[in-house]
Specification:
345 residues, mainly alpha, 13 helices, membrane
């Protein structure tokens, strides 16, 4: 009996070792699956971005078709050419100037922050603000502002792949649409066609409204900043219009460099610039956004923030940029496949 105890202890040790290895294997598998799913989700986001490009071109083609009465294919082609000409115009006439101003602003940010720090030291409230950032956060903020300025003027992600996917989706959307429908069981094919049709209509309306809002913000920002005589007004206005594509966070990010530049003139100038941005965003929120919502669907603001935080945490910048259209897709799918079915029942 005494000889069996070591064997029993050895067996327990072997069992424990196996359990440890199994646990480590499961954890490793979960980690690997998480990385794979994250990478796959990034790819899906790029596919979705390409689909948005195709939706834009076909929406522009529909608009032209109502005006010039040509076939849809020719109108899409004309829409692509018009877009390329507009982009070429922006790059040739405005691109060089904007690029120069952005480069100058990026280089000036450290000096601007130092100047703001010196001005804040001149008041009691300013010294309290600096006290909260005295642990080295100011240098982190400076780096963050520079990174934002360097990366916000290009699409975060692989632009080439997104554009290539967008071109393929634009040339033959029916091929991919029918390919998705073929994966659906026979009983659900009609419902799937209805969902895709509504998604197409809703995303076109959303894109139309967003482009109008971005143009509106750019023009008003340029006019307002030029009246105040703010340096680099063109770059700041372009930046404000571009970032308006990102609800909630975009306008706030766009306002920061403008206010910092205002601080180099005076605190009153910075305050006027902040009030200008707030006024423009208020007008946009109360006029442009309701028009967009009448075309598409009403989205609760809290859901937009939640989706931005969620997708931003999962995939970074591209997730934040595409959070709102992704939320639109989710709402439409839930409404078509669940809410309407419950009402029918």
């Amino acid at each position: 009996m005494a000889a069996e105890k070591p064997d029993s202890a050895q067996g327990d040790l072997n069992l424990f070792t196996r359990k440890v290895w199994i646990t480590m294997g499961i954890i490793t598998l979960i980690v690997l699956l998480t990385f794979i799913l994250k990478a796959a989700f990034n790819v899906l986001l790029m596919v979705f971005a390409g689909a948005l490009i195709a939706v834009y071109f076909h929406g522009l083609g529909n608009l032209l078709q109502r005006k010039i009465k040509l076939s849809h294919r020719w109108c899409v082609l004309i829409g692509v050419l018009i877009t390329l000409l507009l982009v070429g115009f922006l790059f040739s006439f405005l691109g060089a100037k904007i690029s120069t101003q952005v480069s100058e602003l990026s280089k000036d940010i450290p000096a601007i922050l130092e100047d703001v720090k010196g001005r804040l030291n001149g008041s009691e409230v300013g010294r309290k603000i600096l006290y909260y950032f005295s642990d080295g956060n100011s240098s982190k903020m400076m780096n963050s502002f520079q990174d934002v300025f360097r990366t916000s003027f290009g699409v975060v992600g692989d632009v080439y792949i997104i554009l290539l996917i967008g071109i393929f989706f634009t040339v033959n959307p029916g091929l991919y649409r029918e390919g998705i429908i073929k994966l659906i069981p026979t009983a659900g094919k009609n419902r799937a066609r209805a969902v895709i049709k509504r998604l197409d209509f809703t995303l076109k309306g959303w894109l139309k409204g967003m482009l109008i809002a971005m143009l509106f913000i750019s023009i008003l920002s340029f006019i307002g900043l030029s009246i105040i005589n703010v340096p680099m007004a063109l770059a700041l206005a372009f930046f404000a219009g571009l970032l308006n594509f990102i609800p909630n966070f975009g306008p706030l990010i766009a306002m920061i460099p403008a206010v910092l530049i205002g601080f180099t003139e005076s605190a009153n100038t910075a305050l006027v610039i902040a009030l200008l941005y707030i006024l423009i965003q208020t007008i946009e929120s109360n006029i442009i956004t309701p028009t967009i919502q009448n075309v598409m669907i009403k989205i609760p603001p809290a859901l937009i923030i939640i989706s931005q935080v969620l997708f931003g945490t999962l995939t970074g910048g591209l997730g934040i940029i595409l959070a709102t259209p992704l939320l639109v897709v989710v709402i439409v799918i839930v409404d078509e496949l669940y809410v309407k079915r419950q009402l029918d029942t």
